[in-house]
Design brief:
Layout lengths: L2 E6 L6 H13 L4 E4 L11 H8 L3 E4 L3 H12 L9 H13 L5 H9 L3 E6 L2 E6 L17 H15 L5 E4 L5 E5 L5 E5 L18 E9 L2 E10 L3 H10 L5 H10 L7 H10 L2 H19 L13
Parallel strand pairs: 1-2, 2-3, 5-6, 6-8
Antiparallel strand pairs: 1-9, 4-5, 7-8, 9-10
Helix pairs in contact: 1-2, 3-4, 3-10, 4-9, 4-10, 7-8
Length: 308
């Protein structure tokens, strides 16, 4: 049996980019879809993102580190957030935005998702993870990291699977990538749908959504096609503005230039000076603490566990 698998990752709330990628994958007659995590934030998409993915033949759905924030902040509140940290203030405001209308069934879907899994297709064992199989955050697998980091990806995947792994596919780093382990197992990254990035400017003149098509035929691995798809950036930004997305100007910047401000305390602090984001975050965290105290448990209906 032949498989043409659309590998998707790092939507980061960008509805228009996801719609464009799914349309392109359907035009290529993808037989199934694997999602590697980071569906939400900092873009405006919430329920619509789940609707889009659940309408296709989605056979793998992982949880990324940004997806974790939705549970960690909304459940742990002030126990998790440091309001002196500009990034914490940023993410807390985005989590509050997500919770304005996120449906409970989609929260449960997100939290039930593992951070890694192993699948078999035509005799090939394929490990999927957002970052490493044991942790869905960190910088271990940036494209320029040493070979031993990618060997560790396979080592962890094989330990978790209990058998040898032929391909390891991960997301998180927002770069399309094809390389091998020291033993010639394949390592693939499909790139980012919502926030593709490159530090080399001649290769970063456009910011189309990225994904990959993995082809497997009766003989096994038949190649991987890296794709880039244009989407309606103006409509995405118009929808973000209409939805009153927190830190809209920073989202506009990443959509138009590709440069994220997530780790830029100067840019985040400037936004916090112009808009009372710190006060909003504090009020939201206090509300969470009050609800927890009143109910004696998190106000959401499913506990979060890093070990899922």
């Amino acid at each position: 049996m032949k498989h043409k698998i659309a590998i998707l990752s790092d939507v980061h709330g960008n509805v228009q980019a996801l719609e464009a990628v799914l349309a392109a994958a359907q035009a290529e007659k993808a037989t199934e879809y694997w999602f590697l995590g980071d569906l939400l934030m900092p873009g405006p998409g919430t329920n619509r993102l789940f609707e889009l993915l659940n309408q296709v033949h989605l056979t793998a759905f992982l949880r990324g580190n940004w997806d974790n924030f939705v549970a960690e902040i909304s459940q742990k509140g002030p126990d998790f957030v440091d309001l002196s940290n500009t990034q914490d203030v940023y993410v807390t405001n985005l989590v509050q935005y997500v919770w304005r209308d996120l449906r409970p069934e989609y929260f449960r879907q997100l939290m039930a998702a593992p951070i890694s899994t192993t699948l078999t297709r035509n005799g090939l064992t394929i490990a999927l993870s957002h970052n490493l199989p044991q942790i869905n955050y960190g910088h271990q697998l940036l494209p320029y990291q040493q070979q031993d980091q990618f060997d560790e990806l396979l080592t962890q995947a094989q330990k978790k699977a209990g058998k040898a792994v032929d391909l390891a596919i991960y997301g998180h780093v927002h770069h399309q990538l094809l390389r091998t382990s020291s033993q010639d197992q394949l390592v693939i990254n499909p790139g980012a749908i919502g926030q593709p990035y490159s530090g080399w400017q001649p290769l970063f003149q456009e910011h189309r959504a990225q994904f990959a098509l993995l082809n497997i035929d009766d003989l096994g691995f038949a190649g991987v096609d890296f794709r880039r798809v244009a989407y309606d950036v103006d409509l995405e930004l118009a929808n973000a503005r209409q939805a009153e997305l927190p830190y809209f100007e920073l989202y506009r910047k990443v959509c138009l230039t590709g440069f994220s401000s997530t780790h830029d305390p100067v840019a985040l602090n400037a936004c916090n000076q112009e808009t009372p984001y710190v006060a909003r975050a504090r009020a939201y965290l206090q509300d969470i603490a009050v609800k927890r105290e009143r109910q004696g448990r998190p106000d959401q209906d499913q506990p979060f566990s890093e070990n899922n």
